[in-house]
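*** Fold description ***
***
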Amino acid sequence: MNTTLDDILTRRSIRKFKQELPDRKALEKIIEAGLYAASGHGMQSSMIIAVTDKVLRDRLMEMNRRIGGWQEGFDPFYGAPAVLVVLSNRESPNHVYDGSLTMGNMMLAAHALGLGSCWINRALQEFDSDEGKAILRDLGIEGDWEGIGHCIVGYPDGDAPAPKPRAEGRVYWVE
């Protein structure tokens, strides 16, 4: 089978990671794949914040935990040492779709490189908050950005989960 199709069919969301940070070159390749995602009108409306700094990673994790309503001590990033935050420019009419494609490309690239990943929600609420906006300002990021998701990345700690059966009735042929 074609390796791209194989990667699409075998990628799984990973929810347990080793603490070892992936190689920077691997993260750069994952980011590059995200930057090459299709975008409406070729506007390339998404940006990626690559977080490998443990202090900022843990700050984002704690914000996410609070928004999700989990008890203190729960890590909604499942121990992943790298977080690739996708934001999209709200001025683009397709910004949510563009950011979603960026996320998908990065998760497939991570899998192709032997790394695990998972899409973690609540970036919208994080970066619409005063604390999230302050983080962007501190990073020198200006503009009206919507948080699309966190692509958590790392070395899987254990086997990938088995695929769930595909739901029936989701394809209609019109010939």
In short: The chain has one domain: 17-154.
